[in-house]
Structure to design on (447 residues):
């Protein structure tokens, strides 16, 4: 049922939100449970759609997933892992990209995996070429079928040397989930080292894996024949934390984000300070607030960790529309991540998109036909508009723009936001936002 939000803007968001386990770690941790020969328990699990999708995918493969009714902790038992039909996988995959990461564990467990043609946020064409190449290098046989890709490994997976052309998070996870039980040693160069990757490595090490991360983005994995289950508390979601921080700036508010981890957000904290945001940093969370007065413009470049995380960019762009002066954002991770600015322009923002690399590093998308740099001239008053949410982070950005705008906005397609933001409308309600949820049948919905 697609819900519609009617948002009355101009109300500062004030109060406290709790941020739980990271959307970009929890599903991978659930997949890792497949590698163990005993059950695994994952704690600090958020109630988000991506977790529901992976739960279904594990269950159709015979893995039991029990959810603690009080804490929400998940216990997964891979003892009866079995092959699932491509039709079942297609039904349950939804628009998630997670099926690609099931390959290594499923090949170790049952000798076969199937990947439907994948979905995910529309922020570029989201290829999986690095993933398939990695699996081939481990000795897997990759066959394109009508509705997806079938993967087998007649002789099992063998350790190998892999060099990634780009520090892809997903491809690094693909290597980790395939190499830990492969025969022999795997050396991965050009690896991603995001906090969620390090947390996944911690999980695998708890299971018995032997993994070392070197200073030059090289990860070495010594394959072992068997792994046990794990008991792990997922790291907090730095992307949701940064989203609420931008919401505080955009609406002139004051939000305590319980669970925000400074350690995982160092670059964001520096940027938030440079734009003129106020912060009180504690060990159990961070208070983000608008100090009053003008916000300062920035020149910003997204990059792989420890650079400015691409998922932080979209909500912060909304804040930059309220900064006094000209800001530049150069998106170097995804080729098409500014589509959400169209709605902001309709609301009154002044944003121009360019094909050139407007930043300090010429990136992979320069001089090709990708408008991956934005020039934002502020500050411009925003007025309410009719908005259809394009993707997860763009959707959050549209919501905070509507909350800051003068007048009323109608926001449709908001269900995509629940893929990555737990209890999103309840949190907005708790922060004093003035909005109504309307079910598609016209009846008032639950916030
Ligand atoms: C993960 O996506 C995150 N998603 C993304 O978060 C995040 O933005 C991204 O990492 C970068 O940090 C999850 O973890 C579920 P990549 P992933 O492989 O693994 C290209 C959000 O909003 N590429 O690092 O898919 C790719 O097109 C989401 O929470 C290939 O070309 O990201 C992109 O340009 C959005 N071929 C770049 O690499 C491949 O086979 C980075 O992608 C794989 C990737």
């Amino acid at each position: 049922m697609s819900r519609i939000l009617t948002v009355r803007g101009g109300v500062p968001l004030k109060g406290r939100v709790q941020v739980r386990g990271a959307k970009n770690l929890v599903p991978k941790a659930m997949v890792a449970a497949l590698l163990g020969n005993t059950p695994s328990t994952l704690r600090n699990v958020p109630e988000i759609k991506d977790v529901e999708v992976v739960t279904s995918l594990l269950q159709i493969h015979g893995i039991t997933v029990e959810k603690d009714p009080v804490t929400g902790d998940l216990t997964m038992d891979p003892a009866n892992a079995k092959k699932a039909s491509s039709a079942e996988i297609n039904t349950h995959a939804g628009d998630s990209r997670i099926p690609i990461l099931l390959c290594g564990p499923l090949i170790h467990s049952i000798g076969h995996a199937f990947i439907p043609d994948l979905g995910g946020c529309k922020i570029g064409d989201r290829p999986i070429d690095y993933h398939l190449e990695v699996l081939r290098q481990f000795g897997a046989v990759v066959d394109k079928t009508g509705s997806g890709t079938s993967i087998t490994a007649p002789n099992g997976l063998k350790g190998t040397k892999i060099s990634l052309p780009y520090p892809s998070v997903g491809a690094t996870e693909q290597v980790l989930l395939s190499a830990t039980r492969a025969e022999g040693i795997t050396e991965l160069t050009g690896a991603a080292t995001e906090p969620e990757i390090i947390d996944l490595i911690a999980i695998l090490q708890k299971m018995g894996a032997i993994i070392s991360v070197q200073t030059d983005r090289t990860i070495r994995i010594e394959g072992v024949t068997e792994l046990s289950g794990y008991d792990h508390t997922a790291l907090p979601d730095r992307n949701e934390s940064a989203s609420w921080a931008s919401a505080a700036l955009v609406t002139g508010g004051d939000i305590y984000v319980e669970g925000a981890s400074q350690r995982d957000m160092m670059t964001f904290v520096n940027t938030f300070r440079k734009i003129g945001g106020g912060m009180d940093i504690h060990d159990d969370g961070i208070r983000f607030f608008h100090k009053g007065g003008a916000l300062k413009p920035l020149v910003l470049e997204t990059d792989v960790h420890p650079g400015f995380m691409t998922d932080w960019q979209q909500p912060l762009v909304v804040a930059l529309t309220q900064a006094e002066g000209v800001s530049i954002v150069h998106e170097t991770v995804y080729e098409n991540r500014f589509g959400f600015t169209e709605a902001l322009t309709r609301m009154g923002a002044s944003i121009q998109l360019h094909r050139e690399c407007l930043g300090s590093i010429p990136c992979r998308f320069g001089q090709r036909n990708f408008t991956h740099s934005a020039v934002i001239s502020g500050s411009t008053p925003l007025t309410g508009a009719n908005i259809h949410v394009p993707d997860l982070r763009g959707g959050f950005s549209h919501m905070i723009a509507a909350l800051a705008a003068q007048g009323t906005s109608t926001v449709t397609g908001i269900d995509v936001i629940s893929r990555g933001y737990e209890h999103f409308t309840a949190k907005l309600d708790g922060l004093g936002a003035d909005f109504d949820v309307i079910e598609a049948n016209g009846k008032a919905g639950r916030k």
Observations:
- The chain has a mean pLDDT of 94.
- DSSP finds 13 helices and 23 strands in the chain.
